Amino acid sequence: MMTTMAAMFGAVPLAIGMGTGSELRQPLGVAIVGGLIFSQAMTLFTTPVIYLLFEHIRRYWLALKARGWQLAPARRPKPA
What we know:
mainly alpha
């Protein structure tokens, strides 16, 4: 969060810039700030979801192991 905020605050002058030639740099600043906000929001929402998914998978495997279930039957060679 601190890195994103530092980069975003560094790009804010580009986004709100006024003066000669600012019309060329302003879209770059808006794109930087918007991209940082979007990527930070996606990171904050997807990281917990991924951790919860892995926790669900871990509990599923532990339940299978505790009950002694086999995911695939063991292959035995056929007698000749």
